[in-house]
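Q: Can someone sanity-check these two? First one:
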Amino acid sequence: MEQILELLTQNHLISIPLTDQLIVLFGAIICGLIIGWVYMYAHKSPSYSKSFTISLVLITPLVAVIMLVIGASIIRAFTLLGALALIRFRNAVKEPWDTAIIFWAVVVGMTFGSQLYSFALLILVVIGLLLIILSKTNY
């Protein structure tokens, strides 16, 4: 029983070097800013919301930090799932396009937080260009 309790209370975040933590945090912030910029540039609907754009910018680094903290710990993952179950989103997403942007921010944050930097940047660039092209060509 003592071994299980010790395993549950260990801090595995210490094993991640500070430089990696800073790379994940600031890299994800930059990616979030790019996602917000693409959203502002490509959004044509009158339902544009400044607070939604700010939320997009914040989602990416928050998800990246969550992924970094969870690491390979199944216990942390279930704890996070339980905590997030308490959060309720009361605002309905006005357009399906906005939902896709939210997923884009989450995916970039997850890949950056998993320290898959080149893949995160590839997703950022390819999906960003795709959104701009689709928006500008009225697809």
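And here is the second, same format, sequence then tokens:
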Amino acid sequence: PSPAVSASDPGPVQLLFVCTANRIRSPFAAAVAVERVTVLGLPITVDSAGLLEGGEPAVEQMVRAATRHGVDLSPHVSSQVTAPMLEASDLVVTMTGRHVLGLIEIDPTCQHRALTLREWGARSLNGDPITDWTSTAVREWAARATDRPIGALMSEAADIVDPMSQRWPRTRRTAALIAELVTV
């Protein structure tokens, strides 16, 4: 069945993917999400950002890996996450637990909307997917999903390792994992 969309909840859901530099993991996750949102016709706006200063292109190895998934990252230019971006987002999906903690420092109100991609994927694949793509429902789902001890974020168990400066097979595996876990 298709996810429910409510006419009483105006505006699209704001989905934000965040990683360190917004040059490898988060732009790829966002591009995969955009493809799926488009196919499903869901009212979701997808964006990506990084904790570091922006203005850089996507890393060439990820551009190459993305093409294997039908995604073109060549026009991507990184951007730095801001408090207004976080405030506007209904769901913030990071690549590591430490990214979540860094975002909470920027905007404490995002604590109950920010989770790692592995956390999102695990919940979705284990019977608790987002089924109502409205801002209210997504925020309620996120609040349940982010009810975990802070120590869980620091354990690195939910991290997607940055393949920067790694060999091609690592980047390719990272892209495949991200594509699997984006559960829009």
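A (reply): Looked at the second one. Residues 10 and 143 are 20 Å apart (CA to CA). The radius of gyration is 15 Å.
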